[in-house]
Design a protein that fits this description.
Helix content is 0%, strand content 51%. By secondary structure, it is mainly β.
Length: 106
């Protein structure tokens, strides 16, 4: 999928979990949006440009852009640029299992 995701918060992370993701051009969190738990999730773009698919909306985001949403809303990150993109996710409380949500086609 052209992406890597690393946990940077130290266990035991009972209240918050922090990940950093790196996306090659065209890379994504997966082919389909996914959900995990019902936590607050904060996404910060550290470098490059991405598209966040969130429910029925899409957001073009660049370095220093951020957004907050519930992890129970289907979401997907993809690198829309020509250079590596990096993001940070902060989730509270931590979630464990992610579930793909196939794209709905009209």
């Amino acid at each position: 999928s052209g992406s890597q995701k690393f946990v940077i918060s130290q266990p035991p992370g009972k209240n918050v979990e922090i990940y950093v993701g790196r996306f090659e051009p065209g890379g994504a969190t997966g082919n389909d949006p996914y959900v995990h738990g019902n936590a607050q999730e904060f996404l910060l773009v550290l470098a490059g440009t991405i598209v966040l698919e969130l429910g029925d909306s899409s957001y073009a985001m660049s370095k220093d852009d951020s957004i907050e949403y519930l992890s129970s809303v289907p979401h997907r990150v993809s690198n829309s640029g020509n250079a590596v993109a990096e993001v940070m996710w902060i989730t509270s409380p931590p979630t464990t299992k992610s579930t793909p949500v196939p794209h709905q086609h009209p």
